[in-house]
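Batch manifest, entry 17 of 40.
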Amino acid sequence: MPSHTHSRHLKPFIPPILLAVILAAGAAFCVRPLMESWRSFHTPFCQEQLKSLQRQLDRLDSAYPSKIEELTNRIDALAQKKRLAAEKLDSLKAERLKIRLQEAVSDSSFDIRALFATDYFDDAYRQYLTDLFEIFLKDPYIHQWLYPYYVYATASVQDPHEADVIRDGLSFYTPDDGDNMFSPITEDPADFMKNCYNFDLYQHIYYTGRIYITASDFLNRVIYVPCTVTDAAIFAKAYGGIPDPAQMNVPDWTQEDYSRFWRYALSGRETDEPVWVIFGLSSEDFNIDWNSLMDEQAFYDTYLKFMNRIAPGLG
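Output type: structure tokens
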């Protein structure tokens, strides 16, 4: 009985469901031709749009390298103009300095200090000093006689003031550690010269009558190694090369002579008189090749480099 009632209630709903299915099938049957028709119309249009876009991309791709090359060439041309302008400016500055130097040579009343006051000259001169210091560090001769003296003197001197004179005067050295004789302050020559140098080129010309800084000038006037230090080191070089008195051999000297020499040598007193003169000796008594003490050619070549920068062609 209940099952008949349930079937009776379902019967009214069957026709709407069948109607929905029929309508859906009819819509699909009608829409499909419309979609095919739209696709057949739209596909060629899309393909043409894609071809047009591809043509534009091809044009850009072909034009891109030439545009880049054009821009690169323009940048290179501007850079070349900048370089030529800088070279021209340097040339004009050098020519002006050359004229001033020539005037200084021919006219004793010319105020050469005005030349030295220019920024261009100052930059060139400080580069000259830096180059000289690098030459000094590489000198194959100087350190053969100066460094052994430093090692001996700093180990032997008792007076604190004398020790300071040696250490300050030879601050570019460090005690022998089997690796490097030079102090860390020498690792940057430009910085070393900036911190240690207080010398004026005008003064140098006043005292020496020349711009050229010799190797001995560099030691005594630029980095201020005391004359007593270089004199004592050269003296030790002349008589054995090793500063220890027990290993030196000065003819007719007694132990007292050696002791007196080292008292003078390490005193640090200011004097322009070579220490050996006190003992009645002259440089001729040393029997030493003075050219073997310093690589003077390297110092002179550095001077020529400096002159060619400030006054090319002056001679």
